[in-house]
Amino acid sequence: WKIFSIYTIKAETYYLKTYFDTDKEHQEFLDTLKNRSIYDFKEDITYEDKILTLSTCSDDGTKRIAIHAKMVKVEYRDKSTS
């Protein structure tokens, strides 16, 4: 996994959206997440990427800290040789 966005926002659910009517809508959503980031991770992100979202409350409980990452590689281990 590679992080492409991290930010703090007021409590909302927009960043948890998982269904999109079009690829364009999905890409615009991902661009919004990336543009919210407080740091430029220099990661390209497309609607074809698999996304992981982590979220927690800030210290005072009024905001959310969100981290978004994309899957970069899937490894399968052959358990028969272990």
Give a topology summary.
Blueprint: E1 2-10, H1 23-36, E2 51-57, E3 63-70
Antiparallel strand pairs: 1-3, 2-3
Tell me the distance between the termini: 25 Å
Give the low-pLDDT segments. Answer: none
What does the overall shape look like? globular
Output the strand order for the largest sheet: 1-3-2
Structural class: alpha+beta
Outline the structure in words.
With 82 residues, this protein is α+β, with helices and mostly antiparallel strands. Helix content is 17%, strand content 29%. The chain has one helix and three strands. It has one helix at 23-36, and strands at residues 2-10, 51-57, 63-70. A three-stranded antiparallel beta sheet has the order 1-3-2. It is globular, with a radius of gyration of 15 Å. The mean pLDDT is 91.
